[in-house]
Amino acid sequence: MKNTLKFTTLFLFCHLFICGLKAKDFVSIEIKYDPKGVLALGQGFYIGIAATTEKGKVFETPGFLSPGLLKATDWSNFKIEVEGGTFEDGAVFISNNFSDIKNHEIKIKASVKDKPEVKNEIIIKLTYSGTIYAVFDGKKGKRGKGGDMGNTGGNGGSSQKATDGTPGGDGQQGGDGSDGENVDVYLKLTYDELLKKDMLQIWCVSKTTGKKKFIYLDPVGGKFIVTVNGGDGGDGGDGGRGGECGYDPNTTNPNLAGGKGGNGGAGGNGGNGGKVTLHVDPNTEKINTEINFSRAGGSAGKGGTAGYQGQKSQGTGNEGMPGSQGQSGHSGNQGPETAMLKEQVNIDWASVRNSGSNKVENKSNESSNTNTTTNTKTNTNVNSNTVKDNAKAEGFPDGAYNKKRENGTLLESGEYKNNKKVGTWKTFREDGATIYKQTEYSLNGSCKETQFGENGKILSVINTNKEGKRHGLVQFYDNNGILQEEITYDNDSKTGPCKNFSGLLLVKSGQYLDGKQNGPWKFYDVKGNLEAERTYTNGTQNGPCKLYYNGKLSSTGQFKDGKKEGEWKTYDRESGAVKKTENYKDGEAQP
């Protein structure tokens, strides 16, 4: 009790302290930025604000600064202006247009909204070094829609028979990934008077879509990667769960079954890799810049998971049949080898540099082919026979990653480390703001995936091991975010506690072992009253059983191999006294 009181007091103190802080209490601010960002046209990097109060307390904005307890302040307290770029959610995006950049610098100004005299600014020199991508990948196919869950069968009564559960719906087929684009890449060296050194101008034009991209690169410290990978096939939708069969109070083994699980949808096919044609001006002969090309075919979409079979009702009837796993699609073909043409490149570079066609881009084709890194260096003063490119993608640089759709809305965000996803990743719906899925990656390869409905309510929480199989707690919710099922898995097999709900009421609870009911289980009626206590071995009723009516004990006995066995007692529902005693053998009452 004392520990609880201490924690509550500390929480209230923290809450009051943070809520009591006002932006007008700040007397100075400092702008910090992530030096790991690529400082070049169209690229982005993170910044942070450290604000100090008159008492010397420092409060930091959320983001890469990772503020601790009692040290957080919100971005809404500050006004951020960027000369030569824009600001959004803790990130600065350098302009696409060279005419917006003065002296190869950008200026970031920050001030406290409620106290504008408290301000600061920094000037950041663009280096045009680091790794810059030109992404012309095909689009990933859409994931197939999951099948609907089957309906629960009707319960029996004195004048009606119980019914089977209905089948779950089949998952839809995943969409095919589109092909990578065919792209011309033009290279020409220019001398920059302000930087006092040679700089590499790169102009990329897609023959497929007309998309264009200009890159200004330091030939010594810069690295350039063009990707024309085929889009991955979309995964097939999961089959719907079969409905539970109805409950027949008149018999322990009715000829009823849960509905068949729906079949998983087939995965979509991966798109084919595109082609890059490299046009190299002779004046680039004196540089040796690392340039990579990636033209891998898209990965096949995975088949949807088979829908689970409909369950027995309160331990009676039979489970339905599970659905079938969907077939995976076919991987796309590798694109043609990159062609290198050594020729005079005559382009209106002044117009190109100010076209604004550049935009912030990261690798857009997240697929299994990105796990292999081939580092190929292209020396531009050699003949076309020595041009090498990567059939596999180059991989992802460490740090924050944001992938956007072509319409500019955010598709997913997260972080890479050593070419692997780490920490929390979010996938967004078409509006770029509503979260569809959140995945938390562990260092051991396991992950926790939370899926949300369009209303923002949780639909499922699934833990998987490094092989992608369900492992640990798995939860399913209804459209209102209310928990409906909670199961523990071991390497894709139900093993451990399980609970099922109808609305807010518990329907049944017990344990699974190797995918089958095992040990004691409890079942509840539609009012939440205890209705049955049954014992299972390897999915079959074995051992003691207690039945209830409106929460009161009505009969007790034993089961053997799913049938009544031995002495069974029936009780008066009011007094609780034994009303009748019967003996059973192999499920039949004995005279």
3D structure, described in words:
- The chain has 591 residues and is mainly beta.
- It has a domain at 2-127: Immunoglobulin-like.
- Helices cover 4% and strands 40% of the residues.
- The chain has helices spanning 2-20, 349-353; strands spanning 26-33, 44-53, 58-60, 78-83, 85-88, 91-94, 105-112, 115-125, 130-135, 183-192, 197-206, 212-217, 222-227, 276-280, 290-294, 339-342, 399-404, 410-417, 420-428, 435-441, 447-452, 458-464, 470-477, 483-490, 493-502, 505-513, 516-524, 530-537, 540-541, 543-549, 552-560, 563-571, 578-585, 588-589.
- A hairpin with a 2-residue loop joins strand 31 and strand 32.
- The protein is elongated, with a radius of gyration of 32 Å.
- The two termini are 61 Å apart.
- Mean pLDDT is 81; it is low at 1-19 and 358-394.
List keywords for this structure.
mainly beta; 2 helices; Immunoglobulin-like; 4% helix; elongated; 5-stranded antiparallel β-sheet; 34 strands; 18-stranded antiparallel β-sheet; 591 residues
